[in-house]
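Why do we care about 3D structure at all? Because function follows from shape, and shape follows, mostly, from sequence. That is the central idea of this module. The next example makes it concrete: a single protein chain, its amino acid sequence, and then its structure expressed as tokens.
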Amino acid sequence: MQAVIPESQEETKALNSSSLFPTTGDAGPHSGRRLAILHQNAGPTLAYFVRAPAEQAKFVVTELDSSIAPCASTVALLEKSDNILVVRYLPKPWLRVIQRLASSGATLAFLMDDDLLDPEALKGLPVAYQRRLRERITNQSRFVAKLFSRVWVTSAYLQHKYSHLQPHLLQMCPEAKLFPSRSTRRLAYLGTASHPLEFAWLVGLLEKLQSSRSDCSIELYGDLQVNRQFRHIPGVRILHPMSWSSFLLDSSTRQLDVMLCPLLDHPFNRCRAPIKFFDAARMGAVGIYSDRPPYQGFIHHGEDGILLVDGHDLWLNAINMLLDDQTHLETLAANAKRRASAFCAVTSVLPFT
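And the structure:
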């Protein structure tokens, strides 16, 4: 069974916004344009199949986390919704709520983006993952046909396998914002485990940055503890620490816009050399450095880098200034690379004698 590939934007809209839920012209107490989506971290599926059609159909959307047991306020939100979409999972704590909504005549749809209802399909998957799927949906599979008036799937395979449920094959319709006209800006902090103060300080800065911008991807190197510190901040990627040779190869193949080089006042930090300047230059970035040794007196502020005291707002303003002025960014980055390259001509002696 083949999926229909839309030939035009108009056809895409028609395929996605028609017949999924009743429109305001339908009779009944649950007709309308309020859509509640009950899901657990179903970001890709919603981004590629649901959010754009919902916006095209002018649904007012409320998203609820089904990993959290229902309470009076969340149940009230569902009861006020004209249409309810349950994505992937049907956790036991929510069953009674969904049953009551189905009995009241609410329009309920179940969206399946993997083969979640067949226990045989889970064989060979990691045991812990099998257990999660069984608890969240597979053991409740018999309720799908009983409770949901609509079943949606994301592949022709699922549509064919579960044809007895008369599933609707959703067309891929990504959100336009997933393809921004402006390229993503890349930032990084290359500190190691010897920088716990700097990691703690960066949390507040990156929270502010990512709450005000949507075009920044930020790379950090760290362990599980660092991951826990930053995983709540969108756009932050934690890379595993690697050997110098691996890091050198990895960093030589990609470019950055801004390298963050905070260095807080600590006895251990007073012995450091300003080598992060060379990493910034190698990766085509402008470094923003703490205005204290070893960067103080080495970085030429406003020429080959930025020197700042430790206030988050000052750093945030400097980041925005660089990212919003491409000419200035490129000038400082070129100056840094030129100066860093000049060090290659320095004559240095290893004083064995």
